[in-house]
Description:
By secondary structure, this protein is of the alpha/beta class. It has helices spanning 25-36, 69-78, 91-96, 121-127, 143-151, 166-174, 182-187, 189-200, 232-240, 262-275; strands spanning 14-18, 42-43, 48-49, 56-61, 82-87, 103-108, 156-161, 178-181, 204-210, 245-252.
Amino acid sequence: MKSLTEYPENEANVISFTAPIGKRASEMQDSFSDVWWAVETFDPDKKKNLFQNIKVHDFGMLSEPVETIGKKVKSIIESHKVSFMLSYGHLATLYALKELNDIKLVVFDAHADCNLGYIDERIEDQDFREGQKLSENLNDSNWLYNYVKEKGGGKVLAIGFRSFNEAEMDFMNKNKIGYITSTDLKKRPEVVRSVLWNFTQGSNVYISLDIDVFDPSIAPAVHFPEPNGIFFDQFQQVIGDLNGQLVGLDLCCLSPIAGNKVTEFLAARAVKEILSKVKV
Ligand SMILES: [Mn+2]
């Protein structure tokens, strides 16, 4: 099994792990970890090493049940390290955030994932761990709905949404979830960036990155490639306006394609970009 570990646990300030959910979770983990080492951390434009202060230790695939991920994330953050979860689907984010209360959540995604208790068997088949039955009809397309039901929507800002229905829109409006579509970002980048700056200022911030937020032309290895996605330079500028203290992040929904590592390279670079915002 491949690993992101470069430092022993006691020296690390970022702890990564892979959520044990999704039939292709270990394949995804290998595919991502493979390219992680090939992506430079030096940014020629900023003339700066993004990983100047970043030391990663990787726990690998967790052997505990998914329900315990929340405790794991909480203990990483309490030890003053940043939690980084790799996950095949997006449902693991619901578990990762379970024990966190005082955070602002920034979600990058093409999809609102606010379907009300909706189960699509085709999705279910992909995302449920074999032999492990999860309760309460939880899945990748309703994790944010369930998060907001529990924690409220006022501390959620979504960026890049471009695929949701009327019921999901009503739910987001009623629950005060802030959302910025990919078109908003393209047409009014300054407005979006000041919204993000203000939203995250003085707060503990958790970022959930569904790699399908990017345009399918640069991120083909996803479950549901939605047209009109964002591009890397737009993402980079948005991340530049993150304020506050980054306590955790996750990368979701990378679905490897044999012989094509384009999405993995993008994902590794995007994660390194986010981690460069860690304050040490
Ligand atoms: Mn998505």
